[in-house]
Amino acid sequence: MAARTTKANPIPSVWARRAREADQPALSRAAIVREAVLMLDADGVEALSMRKLGARLNAGATSLYRHVATKDELMELAVDEVFGEIAVPAADGADWRAAATGAAQSFRATALRHRWLSSVLGQAGLAYLGPNLMSFSERLAALFADAGFPEPERAIETVLSYVIGMSTTEAAWLTTVARSGESEADFIARLMPAAQQAVADHEHLAEAYAAEVVDPVALRDDKFAYGLEVVLDGLALRRPKAS
User: Which domain of life does this protein belong to (predicted)?
Assistant: First the structure.
């Protein structure tokens, strides 16, 4: 009796299978992903569907699914697409803090342009296998390795945990502001009386809410910079002293 062969289940990731050729000139994986990112930026993850995307591209379901099998695969591709926007300064080891700061600031700026990004990073399948994300990780690894960190991946995880955490909170706030139809300053001014009343019986919180917010953008920038400096101060203590 012939032995039965068992076919392994395919790995559920767009990066684990070969891309197909376009079946019509205007439709390609790149075009699909660009349009998906525009939809995500405009309406968020919940509003994105393969049906709506196909309609935007004037493509039938069969044509679309030849390039992207599921919405999960589409999210992997979209995440990798925007990671291509993140700049990581060249790693020469001379001023690792300035380079790490530049990379963190570029990540934050990208995450705030694409406010859906930070919230989906842990859910986007095997997105880390994408070429842009892989290149981003390699450049960060080179930065911290050249700076003398014995475990560059630990330094990367520490910095990214801070940046992603702050960016997620900040993006959610900016989404709330955008839905109000007001500027950030006007929204805060309207919200402040209720916030001050809520903290009236809490001494330390009341003090924090007492000051008028003149420039909310500058305030958010300062908060991010302060926290990043604290993180880098901590990492500096882990860096071996030059002999």
Answer: Bacteria
Q: C-alpha angle with apex 173: 170 to 179, nearest 5 degrees?
A: 140
pLDDT of res. 243: 44
Q: Which residues contact 223 (CB under 8 A, 6 or more apart)?
A: 166
Phi, psi of 152 (to 5 degrees): -55, -35
Given a cut of 80, is residue 126 above it in pLDDT? no
- The C-alpha atoms of residue 152 and residue 3 are separated, in whole angstroms, by 48
Please tell me the pTM assigned to this model. Answer: 0.84
How many CB atoms within 10 Å of residue 24?
A: 12
The whole-number average pLDDT for the span 168-189 is 94
Return the pLDDT at 21.
53
Q: What average pLDDT score do residues 61-86 get?
A: 88
The first and second tokens of residue 240, run together, are 């071996």
Q: What is the dihedral of CA 73, 130, 31, 28, to 10 degrees?
A: -80
